[in-house]
Write a structure and sequence with these properties.
Elements (H helix, E strand, L loop, with lengths): L8 H15 L3 E12 L5 E6 L4 E6 L1 H4 L11 E11 L4 E11 L2 H17 L17 E6 L4 H13 L4 E6 L7 H14 L5 E6 L13 H9 L4 E5 L7 H5 L2 E2 L3 H8 L3 H31 L3 H51 L1 H6 L4 E4 L17 E5 L5 E4 L9
Parallel strand pairs: 3-5, 6-7, 6-8, 8-9, 9-10
Antiparallel strand pairs: 1-2, 1-4, 2-3, 4-5, 11-12, 12-13
């Protein structure tokens, strides 16, 4: 009988480790998470199982921090990693490098294709996003009426600013019936102008749970809304296409409530500050006016007026003197001309000639002036008109010789 040297446990374990780790450097397993135990150091310990088998799994902190979902017991996942043997216990496990919800790869590809297509249409462009009102009076919340999200939103708004009116537009937020119901509520809010801003969202969940908020019809309704929309879907690490189409994305529903409800105390403080600033500005303006008016006493105003008046009066006086001098010159000139004309007229005046001893002789019968002896004949009666009175005479003789 051949005697076989027995192997030590460490030896066989080492051989198994070498074979397993060499044969499965990278493998993807599908299984259901069970006994999930996050450690205080950030590492994630759990079991992957199917109907008949189970395997231990560990995902270290450096990898688990990038998970797109929160691992929970009962979640079916695809885990990719390497097979490792834990020699101290003689067990094997998978060290997970990445993990996604089973079927999420197809979902993510679908969402990426939809995202690219809608982005090409401009639905996510920054220039089409509208500002959120700073002081909304009415807020419409589209979410499940029984979820934690609506309770958080109402509690925060009541605490921060109870004067804001909140209208709840109930709609399912999960399942096939959710997208059309959410679209109808957005259209209702717009048709009846029910709010100054809309919050649409829900609490956290798996990728499948959040799918309704990436529905194409809902994304288009959010983008087409005339009322500004805040998307508040899931937790901070969650995302949906509504986040891209909305005018603003809030990491959580609670954060959305804080964004649209300014603290009443802050508003009162701002109003008081503005009133104080206005009062100070008015006081300063009044003081400046008072200082300006103080410079204008009755005496100073009169002096200033005199300073303005004197040059004008001097100009008037100068103009008056110039006008009078011009008028005097004109009058003197006209008077001289009149005197010359008077002298001429006086020289031609018959009465002036008569004063010098001359007389005017007329034919007594015809009244014709006799200028020459030839204008009369012996026997004719004449009227001789000296300066004063008249003389009647009869022609006795005519002498036509020149004197």
């Amino acid at each position: 009988m051949t005697h076989v040297k027995p192997l030590k446990i460490a030896e066989i374990t080492s051989l198994i480790k070498e074979i397993l780790e060499g044969s499965f450097p990278s493998v993807t397993l599908e299984g259901e998470i069970s006994n999930c135990r996050p450690s205080s150091t950030g590492h994630l310990y759990f079991t992957l199982k199917d109907e008949s088998s189970a395997i231990s799994a560990v995902m270290f902190k450096g990898k688990s921090r990038y998970l797109a979902f929160t691992p929970k017991d009962g979640t079916l996942v695809h885990a990719t990693g390497s097979i490792s043997v834990y020699e101290a216990r003689g067990t094997y496990q998978i060290i997970v490098d990445s993990m996604e919800i089973a079927g999420s790869g197809d979902i993510l590809r679908l969402l990426e294709e939809r995202k690219q297509r809608l982005a090409a249409e401009g639905l996510f462009d920054a220039d089409r996003k509208r500002p959120i009102p700073e002081f909304p009076e009415r807020i419409a919340v589209i979410t499940s009426p029984t979820g934690a999200a609506v309770r958080d939103i109402l509690q925060i708004i009541r605490r921060r600013n109870p004067s804001i009116s909140v209208t709840i537009l109930p709609a399912p937020v999960q399942g096939a019936e959710a997208p059309p119901a959410l679209v109808r509520q957005i259209e209702t809010a717009n048709d009846y102008r029910m709010a100054d801003v809309i919050i649409i969202g829900r609490g956290g969940g798996s990728l499948e749970d959040l799918l309704p908020f990436s529905d194409e019809a809902l994304v288009r309704a959010v983008a087409a809304s005339k009322i500004p929309v805040i998307s508040a879907v899931g937790h901070e690490i969650d995302w949906s296409l509504c986040d891209l189409a909305a005018d603003l994305r809030a990491p959580t529903p609670s954060a959305a409530a804080e964004l649209v409800s300014p603290l009443a105390s802050d508003i009162a403080s701002r109003v008081a500050g503005a009133a104080e600033s206005i009062a100070l500005a008015l006081t300063d303006r009044v003081e400046r006016v008072r200082l300006m008016l103080a410079q204008f006493s009755a005496e100073s105003l009169e002096l200033r007026f005199r300073r303005i008046e004197q040059p004008i009066l001097l100009r008037f006086d100068d103009a008056k003197e110039a006008l009078l001098a011009s008028l005097s010159d004109r009058i003197r000139e006209r008077r001289h001309r009149i005197e010359l004309l008077a002298e001429k007229l006086e020289g031609a005046n018959p009465r002036a000639i008569l004063k010098r001893g001359y007389s005017m002789v007329r034919d007594a019968k015809t009244g014709k002036i006799i200028r020459s002896g030839r204008d009369t004949a012996p026997g004719l009666e004449l009227v001789i008109m000296p300066e004063k009175g008249s003389i009647r005479a009869r022609v006795e003789e005519i002498c036509n010789e020149e004197i």
